[in-house]
Write a structure and sequence with these properties.
The chain is mainly alpha-helical and 128 residues long. It has one domain. 69% of the residues lie in helices and 3% in strands. The protein has four helices and two strands; from the N terminus they run ββαααα. The chain has a two-stranded antiparallel ribbon. α2 packs antiparallel against α3. The longest helix is centred in the N-terminal third of the chain and has 32 residues. The N and C termini lie far apart (59 Å). The relative contact order is 0.14.
């Protein structure tokens, strides 16, 4: 279990003052803050989407906003997986695994934009 301390990143030992039993809850707090930040951004996108719908904006702008809203939710999903891992198993492997999940944000966004976005939000072509 590793955390960042005053002298940098420690691999293999905890900083003084952090008990082993506290480590999962530190990861839960980090994940909750991370998720709340992107839930707030998703709520702002949702609100903007509602405003643009009332103004009869172009389909391309609405699609771009929906894609951005989904991208915010990708971050929320990664944080949720991290929180579940932190609480799921023995502290010895669950805490490092819950931190390592954040390394897959790029992969999650690739899958979202390459696989899900074309299926969920197909590009609407208008006649010239």
């Amino acid at each position: 279990m590793d955390l960042i301390g005053p002298d940098g990143v420690f691999f293999g030992r905890r900083p003084a003052g952090v008990e082993l039993a506290q480590a999962p809850w530190l990861m839960v707090m980090y994940g909750a803050g991370f998720a709340l930040l992107f839930l707030l951004l998703a709520a702002l996108h949702w609100r903007a989407l509602g405003c643009l719908r009332r103004r009869d904006e172009s389909a391309a702008r609405l699609r771009a906003l929906r894609v951005s809203l989904g991208a915010c939710l990708v971050y929320v999903a990664v944080a949720a997986i991290s929180i579940l891992l932190a609480l799921a198993g023995p502290t010895r492997w669950a805490v490092p695994a819950s931190g390592f999940v954040y390394a897959f944000i790029g992969v999650a966004h690739y899958l979202y934009h390459a696989v899900l976005t074309p299926r969920l939000f197909p590009v609407v072509r208008t006649a010239p």
